[in-house]
Amino acid sequence: MKKWFAWLATAFLALALSGCGYNDFQAKDEATKAAWGEVVNQYQRRADLIPNLVNTVKGYAAHEKDTLEAVTQARAAATSFQITPEVLNNPEAFAKFQQVQGQLSSALSRLMAVSENYPQLKADTSFRDLQSQLEGTENRITVARQRYIAAVQEYNILARSFPSNITAKVFGYQVKPSFTVENEKAISTAPTVNFGK
C-alpha cells in the first residue's frame, strides 16, 4: 500500500511540475530579453548615425544652431541612459527610457524638417545616404519594438494564466511593461491636410 501511495504521489508531483510552467517562464523571459536587446541594438544604431547626419547638415545650415544642438543633446541623453535587464522589470525606468527615445525622435524630426529648406543639402549624396539609413533604422526600431511587444504579451499571458500564475508568484515573475505611446490622445486625431494656400 505504501509503494502504491508513493508511486501515486510521485506521479502527481511529476504531473504538477510539468504543468507549473517554470520552464516556460525561463524560455519566455529569455525571449523578452532577446527582443529587448534587439530594440536597444537598433536605438544604438540610430544614435551612431546621428553625429554624421548633424555634421553634414552643419555645413549647409549653420544658422540652424538650436535644432542641431537639440539633436545633439537628445542623443547625449539617450546614450547616457543605462540600459540594464532591470529596466524591463521597472515600469518607471522603462517609461524614462521611452521618454528619452521619444525626445530623440522628436529632435530628429525637426532636423529633417530643417533639411527641407536647403535644396543643396537634399541634393548632397552623403546626406541622402544618411537620411536613407536613418529611415531604415527607424523602420528596424519599429519592427524590433513590435517583436518585443509580442514577446512581452506571451510572457504576461503566462504570468497571469492559471496555474502558471502560481509559479509566477512563487518564483517572483512579475508582469513586464510593454511599449506605450506617450501622446496617445494627440496621435488619435487625424492630421488636417490642406493643399490650398
Question: Briefly, what is this?
Answer:
The protein is mostly helical. The chain is built from 8 helices and no strands. The longest helix has 39 residues, at 22-60.
Notes on the structure:
With 197 residues, this protein is mainly alpha-helical. The protein is built from 8 helices and no strands. Mean pLDDT is 75; it is low at 193-197.
Task: Walk me through the topology.
Elements: H1 2-18, H2 22-60, H3 65-80, H4 91-115, H5 119-123, H6 125-160, H7 164-171, H8 184-187
Protein name: LemA family protein
Membrane topology: Single-pass membrane protein
Family: Belongs to the LemA family.
Sheet/helix structural class? mainly alpha
Helix content: over 70%
Helical run tally: 8
Shape annotation: elongated
Unreliable segments of 5+ consecutive residues: 193-197
Would you tell me the overall average pLDDT?
Answer: 75
Main sheet characteristics: none
Query: How far is the N terminus from the C terminus?
Result: 93 Å
Q: Give the percentage of residues in beta strands.
A: under 5%
Radius of gyration: 24 Å
Oligomer: single chain
Number of DSSP E strands: 0
Keywords:
disordered C terminus, 8 helices, single chain, mainly alpha, elongated
